[in-house]
UniProtKB/TrEMBL annotation:
UniProt GO BP: sucrose catabolic process
Pfam families on file: Glyco_hydro_100 (PF12899)
Biological role: Invertase that cleaves sucrose into glucose and fructose.
Keywords: Carbohydrate metabolism, Glycosidase, Hydrolase
Top-rank lineage group of the source organism: Eukaryota
Name this protein carries in UniProt: Alkaline/neutral invertase
Enzyme kind, highest EC tier: hydrolase
Family classification: Belongs to the glycosyl hydrolase 100 family.
Length: 554
């Protein structure tokens, strides 16, 4: 972000303006009440035992709230366990701590990258909401929740700022894409600068920021047992404002969320406009995370009712119309078109000739995935890793669909993992299609960056999905690949090439979420009970809606 940029409501000198003091909110005592474990906690505990038995991991114990830290904290703690941690772990923690950002002496986040060799800083010196999530999980798993609490309070405070792009005012609930802290040693003030999309390439507001914020608030609550943060007026209002934006009524005929290109992790033009799987999966997960955290007062109760209705409609829509396996692909291939009735099978009037040739060879007999996008006369058959992994973790995918996604990853290992996990999307678009879809984007050339690039940060999502589906061996195989290159290559942002063999042509080194993603993956394998803070069990009430119906009503 250029230092000379002028914008409305984006600057605040914290030494002069009455800011939300992070230390002002009293720490309520954490709940240590003896209670019956929920089904989710019991199943995660049992899963942890099973995985350890399979992997021959012995003598490992889940840390109690506020108790023992992870094995990856200090050499002393590793002595309690039966194996030596990988030498990369200490290096990773050191690099992660170097990325910390402080506001008036308190840590509030981690910057995107600490790449001193790069001449162009751009906005990599900022704290991105989505980028901080794996860092936050690493600190939570390591028994250091304060930075996460500070981050959650700071971003919900920023949500209240007036947000304008040119002469247009953004919705009140929009969360920032990123923020940075400018220190003035002379005046002894900290100046906070936030970006809600008005400085981003393409000027697109981040739809995913609000969803990640809710998901992280729930992760903090699950990890610490501290309900007081989510119950504060600031966090309750923050959730309601986010929900107001995405649950508002309009002209939509689908329960999915309509988005512009570049509104998520894929923040450049890549043809994901419409109803991208990443946003739908995060939307679903955020709704489920918010449900138990909302107070059942007059305002909260109304939102709870709206969430429940939307979840039922959204799960039905996604499980039926976004899901693709061998049988469904064959059905689409045989679709009739121009059907006009409530009983139409080809509800979106997809032309079978629009199915790309590659998908017929890519689809294994066993396996399946949620495709990238579904809208009138359009199906984007590309694989997107983040959306499919979040679908598993949120239980948007049924247990059968979750297993099918893992089957696909195993069957198409070379294509989706290759020599560096994990392909953000597959396949790459190239030639004429690349020119039309990306607008000749020089950063998103074939098998690079968002266009089929390999992103190490996605290891934590893959690992979480593997543990939830009882397939930790897949995660271990992927992590071993990453360990052979990541440290030696300087923790790159992404890798290029069909197999992910080459450090990305514009990849930043010491990319914070590449570091944090690796740590989170390792800690979850060490103690699978950590999965509980980022995973949701299936809602049995939604199961009857999986059946394919002859009408749209559900």
């Amino acid at each position: 972000m250029e230092s000379g940029l002028k914008k409305v409501g984006s600057y605040c000198a914290l030494g002069e303006v009455d800011d939300l003091d992070l230390s002002r909110l009293p720490d309520k005592p954490k709940l240590n009440i003896e209670r019956q474990r929920s089904f989710e906690e019991r199943s995660l505990s049992e899963l942890s035992i099973k995985i350890r038995a399979v992997d021959s991991f012995e003598n490992m114990h889940s840390p109690a709230h506020g108790g023992m830290r992870s094995v990856f904290d200090t050499p002393a703690s590793s002595a309690r366990n039966s194996f030596e941690p990988h030498p990369m772990i200490a290096e990773a923690w050191e690099a992660l701590r170097k990325s910390l950002v402080f506001l008036r002496g308190q840590p509030v986040g981690t910057i995107a990258a600490v790449d001193h060799a790069s001449e162009e800083v751009l906005n990599y010196d900022q704290v991105f909401v989505r980028d901080f999530v794996p860092s936050a999980l690493a600190f939570l798993m390591n028994g250091e929740p304060d930075i996460v609490k500070n981050f959650l309070l700071k971003t919900v405070y920023l949500q209240g700022w007036e947000k304008r792009i040119d002469r247009f005012k953004l919705g009140e609930g929009a969360m920032p894409a990123s923020f940075k802290v400018l220190h003035d040693p002379v005046r002894k003030t900290d100046t906070l600068i936030a970006d809600f999309g008005e400085s981003a390439i393409g000027r697109v507001a981040p739809v995913d920021s609000g969803f990640w914020w809710i998901i992280l608030l729930r992760a903090y609550t699950k990890s610490t047992g501290d309900l007081s943060l989510a119950e504060t007026p600031e966090c309750q209002k923050g959730m309601r404002l986010i929900l107001s934006l995405c649950l508002s009524e309009g002209f939509d005929t689908f329960p999915t969320l309509l988005c512009a290109d570049g509104c998520s992790m894929i923040d450049r033009r890549m043809g994901i406009y419409g109803y991208p799987i990443e946003i739908q999966a995060l939307f679903f997960m955020a709704l489920r995370c918010a449900l138990p955290m909302l107070k059942h007062d007059a305002e909260g109760k109304e939102f709870v009712e709206r969430i429940v209705k939307r979840l039922h409609a959204l799960s039905y829509h996604m499980r039926n119309y976004f899901w693709l396996d061998f049988q469904q692909l064959n059905d689409i291939y045989r679709y009739k078109t121009e059907e006009y009735s409530h009983t139409a099978v080809n509800k979106f009037n997809v032309i079978p000739d629009s199915i790309p040739d590659w998908v017929f060879d890519f689809m294994p007999t066993r396996g399946g995935y949620f495709i990238g996008n579904v809208s009138p006369a359009r199906m984007d058959f590309r694989w997107f890793a983040l959306g499919n992994c979040v679908a598993i973790l949120s239980s948007l995918a049924t247990p059968e669909q979750s297993m099918a996604i893992m089957d696909l990853i195993e069957a198409r290992w070379e294509e989706l993992v290759g020599e560096m996990p994990l392909k953000i999307s597959y396949p790459a678009i190239e030639s004429h299609e690349w020119r039309i879809v990306t607008g000749c984007d020089p950063k998103n050339t074939r098998w690079s960056y968002h266009n089929g690039g390999s992103w190490p940060v996605l290891i934590w999502l893959l690992t979480a999905a593997c543990i939830k589906t009882g397939r930790p061996q897949i995660a271990r195989r992927a992590i071993e690949l990453a360990e052979s290159r990541l440290l030696k290559d300087g923790w790159p942002e992404y890798y290029d090439g069909k197999l992910g063999r080459y450090v990305g042509k514009q990849a930043r080194k010491f990319q914070t979420w590449s570091i944090a993603g690796y740590l989170v993956a390792k800690m979850m394998l060490e103690d699978p009970s950590h999965l509980g803070m980022i995973s949701l069990e299936e809602d049995k009430a939604m199961k009857p809606l999986i059946k394919r119906s002859t009408s749209w009503t559900c």
